[in-house]
Amino acid sequence: MEEFVYVNGKKLKKGYTTGSCATAASVAAAHLLLNSEECEEVVVISPVDKEIRIPIVSLKRTDEKTVIAAVRKNGGDDADATHGMLIYSKVILREDSEIIIEGGEGIGRVTQEGLLVPIGQPAINPKPRKMIQDNVRKIIGDNQGADIQIFAPEGYEIAKQTMNRNLGIIGGISILGTTGIVTPMSEDSWKAAISIELEMKKKQGFERIILSPGNYGEDFAVNKMMLDENKIVSMSNFVGYVLKEVQRIGFKEVLMIGHLGKLIKVSAGIFSTHSKDADARAEILVANLALMGMSVPDLERISNCLTTEAAGDIISETGYEGVYKIIADKIKFRSEKLLKFREPKVKVDVVIFSSKTGLLSSTKPIKELMEEWQ
């Protein structure tokens, strides 16, 4: 495979998925069983027919029919929580020709409906499962079978750093990968995980959803508004993408809860809120406060603030707290306008807060929203 990709002028190294690691370990173990030959590396074929060359960390034969192999996960320059962990495959030859794949220690189990894997099964997605089967079949042939157990002793702890619990995957990591290859700086896998979570909520019967940019919003929703955390999905910086997914999946009501510093960008039609894409917080505040009549000297003070928290002190001092309701209403307007020309029609309400002050404003009285979204 191509080992590098250029992103924003930088040369970045590609990596391989947990699915590719599990496949490589399985191939190395099967090769030792069938050919009595240890491999320092193996070449596996990805779901998109690309060759991936992967080093083998360890190989151990435990008896005539059993070998355990390990691969170290390498995410390239897009290192995630699983980067550097060891993923193992235990391969046992069968008397028949069937290949059976199971998950062992450190591989999560699915506990909720809505995923590609049935409840109770190990979190080994269909594409990596097929990748393991196809590559091992090339080694053992059509007449031999194998029991393959994928395990990762570090998986239980590492899974705490992933979105698995949000998806109802308990006890470990997932074996994932639609292409087998990790492309640095790619947001696709993150967005895909959010879409999966939204689809899962819909299949579980949720007709409306709470969206938050991250932990601060979730904490405010649960601890200040007393809302059910199961109704909340983190949209990160992908506000526009997630709103369109909400509409595609069929939700008709959305409550967006977030810190002013993040959601204020949406009030100006900025739907990718990462600072690398846009940082116009002060400019948006200045424009709205100017329309309200704030003096030029105070507007200049706002313009020089590095955070919305600092701007908030000036806004309180000068008595312009009404700007927060204007911004909340504009966030609602921009969000609904984004979805205007497709069905179903999506109703959006908004709550904005600051770390210092707490609640700043909402599109409806906060008590009314708390009652509606209980």
Describe this structure in words.
This protein has helices spanning 18-35, 126-140, 155-158, 188-203, 215-224, 239-249, 260-263, 281-292, 296-303, 308-318, 323-338, 366-372; strands at residues 4-7, 10-13, 15-16, 41-45, 51-55, 58-63, 66-72, 86-94, 99-103, 109-110, 145-151, 169-170, 181-182, 208-212, 232-234, 253-259, 347-354, 358-362. By secondary structure, it is α/β, with parallel strands linked by helices. It has 2 domains: 4-182, CbiD-like (2-Layer Sandwich); 194-373, no CATH class. It is elongated, with a radius of gyration of 25 Å. The model has no long low-confidence stretch (mean pLDDT 92). Its EC number is 2.1.1.195. Keywords: Cobalamin biosynthesis, Methyltransferase, S-adenosyl-L-methionine, Transferase. Pathway: Cofactor biosynthesis; adenosylcobalamin biosynthesis; cob(II)yrinate a,c-diamide from sirohydrochlorin (anaerobic route): step 6/10. It catalyses: Co-precorrin-5B + S-adenosyl-L-methionine = Co-precorrin-6A + S-adenosyl-L-homocysteine.
Question: What's the structural blueprint in terms of helices and strands?
Answer:
Blueprint: E1 4-7, E2 10-13, E3 15-16, H1 18-35, E4 41-45, E5 51-55, E6 58-63, E7 66-72, E8 86-94, E9 99-103, E10 109-110, H2 126-140, E11 145-151, H3 155-158, E12 169-170, E13 181-182, H4 188-203, E14 208-212, H5 215-224, E15 232-234, H6 239-249, E16 253-259, H7 260-263, H8 281-292, H9 296-303, H10 308-318, H11 323-338, E17 347-354, E18 358-362, H12 366-372
Parallel strand pairs: 9-11, 14-15, 14-16, 16-17
Antiparallel strand pairs: 1-2, 3-13, 4-5, 6-7, 7-8, 8-11, 10-12, 17-18
